[in-house]
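Exam review. A common question shows you a sequence with its structure tokens and asks you to describe the fold in words. Practice with the pair below. Do the first one on your own.
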Amino acid sequence: MKPDVLKQLNEDRAAKRPVVLATNLTSGDQKLLYQTDAEGQSEVETGARAVFASDKPATIETVDGPVFLNVFNPPLRMIVVGAVHISQALAPMAKLAGYQVVVVDPRGAWATAERFPGVDLVDEWPDDAMEQLQPDRRTAVVTLTHDPKLDDPALAAALKSDAFYIGSLGSTRTHAKRLQRLERLGFTEQDMARIHGPIGLSIGAKSPAEIAVSIMGQITQDLRQEAA
């Protein structure tokens, strides 16, 4: 690998920028591709779009010979607002799926290491926490408290970010009231359409664990199907 390519690749990874290293296996030529590059329609650009979405490297055939596409995506993250029972089931599922999980809840009695072993806990108000966490294209944001004082600031921050998934717990009626509050904050219908509410796939989930399964399924669907 050429020193300048290696230097840029290391800088991209340190900055958590998704990047694909394209190597022509015939000529040895190498090029770094970013998500804006993957919006094109060339063979390499189409291939880059696929490996960004799948998180897996691939070799594609081009008119210039085979090209190996090695993807360097930042870690997946899930920010869960609310240290509730559903969160207790969702956090380990997300970790198994490869997410770095952060649970945000200023209520110290809820957000404890005993209830969330091995999970990063942030005992700050969601607006402050979200400012620190900076959701990006590899981040899912889930709000589960049913408390507008906690959920709404997190949703507002998520809508201003590139988070690939935003979901919020609550009935259809609760979600309608939530949208009214967000509209008063200046968000448009197009902005608010990004929020999955009620959260999760419609699978008839009842228990906290079942609801967590429905949420994890919907997040996976957004990540893998809609990004492809």
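Now try the second one, then compare your answer with the model answer below.
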Amino acid sequence: MVSPQGFALITGASSGIGEEFARQLAAQGWSLILVARSQDRLEKVRSELMSTHMGIDVVAIPLDLTTPGAPADLFQRTQAANLDVEILLNNAGFGAFGEFASLDLNRARQMIDLNIVALVELAHLYMQPMIQRRRGGIVNIASVAGYAPLPYSTLYAATKAFVKSFSQAMYEEARQHGVHFMVVNPGSTESNFFKVAGKSPFSDPSRMQTSAEVVRESLRAFDRKKSSIVTGTSNRLLIVVLTLLPRRWITATVGRVMRRAKVGAPETMEQWNE
């Protein structure tokens, strides 16, 4: 990916996939805007990247994107500072395992606000200057969970299905204006996700990709102007199988597996938007 004069803005940039996007883009010469809740972790990543990669600028903006008006505030701050965003990486998000009826309603609303509302608002805001320049890109992080309804991860899977559908439709609209949309669908990945969502039958480290692997595949796909990518060979095979199976069979099987594993709600979600 060729680095332009502008910035790459990454949400959820203090850990996991977001932090790895920052590292790999910085190595390519991109200047960065890093957004997450944790100021200490953001500053740590910023300092490390600035000392490792000469000639780039790294701006850290601590912000809770679930706060009403936060996406607009972020856009106004970057515009006021003349930070031209050439690529937006909507990575921030979280999930939870457990029965929907047992989830805390405020946490459920936060999940929707972060996984969907903030993502849509940021895409809408940053698309406008991209359209004016007739260049730029927006990458939304969804999940293989968005390919099927998943009992005991009902809301998370539904939010990622929205992100997948929204992004694939936006690919066609945006390309008419010289803007490239892409959605990334990782499977289980070594990150903070399972610290937040809680353990499940899908959190076995031996089955996970690393964040570095996910990001390398994603950046290659972006360079090739792909509209969508499922990262990892095993995940791509899983998607093929899911498209062939009846939805009722999938939900019944996943439900049995999750109940057998006695999956419940996590004890804490304090780390979800670092």
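Model answer, second protein: The longest helix spans residues 105-133. DSSP finds nine helices and seven strands in the chain. Full marks require stating both points clearly.
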